[in-house]
Specification:
C8orf32 fold; 5-stranded antiparallel sheet; 16 strands; Immunoglobulin-like; about 280 residues; 6 helices; 2 domains; single chain; about 20% helix
């Protein structure tokens, strides 16, 4: 088990004053059976009131408006979280039993439907079907599918954007964690395995010393249902361990962006992000 301190600074700057902005932040983790939030806070500049709630998918949301003229918006999320590893455990479940179980609950049914971001490229769909055909148990098929995607796609920034689709990323065979998660989701859903998008943080340095502050970033991985929900990180081809901190879940990135908003003004906004992760124990 590790104790991680996370500071996530983000926001917008404008070349002039905007008259109002309306925003949602999904930057604070919640406690689960594998992580415990010891403390968390959200600071906003300019100062304003915040309405906090848990959304449909169980993600903590801070909604706030800034109604006075401002030329910048700064949000700083600070969290201290204890995290334990979540190794894969394959349940002895047949494809027929999965289909019956998945169709009986909203939480799994809605994670079977493709979105515009996850709809798979024809090659990915064929790979998924071929792998699924080799396995009697969907959990083991899901693991091989996710690993295959991680092997095929090279991590590279600047090739894709937040609006890129799984199909576009697959054609270039390059992308970031968001793209690999979307490709994997599309492949899993193609063969009837419910799968959901997970946003959070990954401490990038496995051997970091206690007290060492490391530059990090937001991260994304997947969870699939094959008797129970299991997580996997296709970007790094690793199981979810004590360096992963979960913030939100959804159908794709569109359900869990760290910061989303609209503003009134003639200017183009510039987004800035800085994440620092410190191992405490």
């Amino acid at each position: 088990m590790k104790r991680l301190r996370i500071e996530h600074q983000t926001g917008f700057s404008y070349p002039g004053e905007v008259t109002a902005s309306y925003n949602e932040a999904r930057m604070l983790p919640g406690s689960t059976d594998s992580q415990f939030v010891l403390s968390s806070s959200l600071d906003i500049d300019p100062s304003t009131s915040v309405n906090q709630y848990v959304d449909y998918f169980g993600t903590r949301v801070a909604a706030f408006d800034v109604l006075s003229p401002h030329s910048s918006l700064q949000i700083t999320a600070r969290s201290l979280v204890e995290v334990r590893p979540r190794p894969l455990e394959h349940v002895d479940l047949t494809w027929e039993a999965l289909a019956a179980e998945a169709s009986g609950a909203i939480g799994t049914v809605e994670q079977l439907t493709q979105t515009g971001r996850t709809r798979p490229h024809a090659e990915v769909a064929e790979i998924a079907r071929t792998i699924a055909g080799r396995h009697d148990h969907p959990g083991r098929a899901a693991f091989e599918i996710a690993t295959r995607i991680g092997d095929e796609v090279q991590y590279m920034t600047g090739v894709t954007g937040v609006h890129s689709t799984a199909s576009e990323a697959w054609e270039s065979r390059k992308g970031v964690c968001q793209d690999m998660a979307h490709i994997t989701l599309g492949a899993l859903r193609e063969v009837g395995i419910p799968a959901r998008y997970v946003s959070g943080y990954l401490h990038p340095k496995p051997d970091a010393e206690v007290g060492e502050a490391v530059t990090g970033e937001s991260h994304a991985w997947v969870e699939w249902f094959a008797g129970e929900w299991q997580g996997f990180d296709p970007t790094n081809n690793i199981e979810i361990g004590d360096r992963h901190v979960l913030v939100g879940r959804g159908r794709d990135y569109g359900d869990v962006p760290p910061l989303r908003g609209v503003y009134a003004g003639p200017f183009k906004s510039n987004l800035h992000v800085k994440v620092t992760i410190t191992r405490e124990t």
